[in-house]
Amino acid sequence: MRVIAGTYRSRLLASPPGTLTRPTSDRLRETLFNILGPRIPNSRFVDLYAGTGAVGIEAISRGAAHTWFAESAPPALKILRQNLKTLAIARHYALEDRGTGTLLQRLLKLPDPLDIIFLDPPYEAENEYTATLSFLGSQVATKLLTPDSLVIAEHATKTKTPLRETYGLLTQSRTYKQGDTTLTFFTPTP
Fold this sequence. Notes:
This protein has 190 residues and is of the alpha/beta class. The protein has five helices and eight strands, in the order αβαβαβαβαββββ. Strands 3-2-1-4-5-8-7-6 form an eight-stranded mixed beta sheet, sandwiched between helices. Helix 2 links the parallel strand 1 (44-48) and strand 2. The radius of gyration is 15 Å and the shape is globular. The mean pLDDT is 94.
């Protein structure tokens, strides 16, 4: 696994052994960031269920102004911290080690909205998708997003419970399938 482009281009990223952490593949990350393109420089980017941090680190490498990571699984958290340290990333990020829910509550206190929120829970944790997307589409979270913000969910192409078209104020705007993995994009409705 490596950083695809930007400041840290071609630098290797560590991944924990085993299958408990499933990093977003290089190919899918490249596709995601090709789609996002000019939205990344100076953006406020959130990487929920960050795992190794590969997606958020890619955003930093490509010029995001600030990136927030949420990860609570000890093996993944250890690797995420190691990847940030190995790349000597010491600023323009925050790491919440108590998980997604805690980070979302912290983000509500920010004075400015976010540009991109990426979430990639374990594929089998379908309740995490529903809970996080429902929260982000709720009236409580409206200050986190602008009409130009994007919420992107990485998930298995074949699931027992497919993602809904809407979650409160979030509406599906695009779906991109790559093999067994799908990226679903949501935009807030005003």
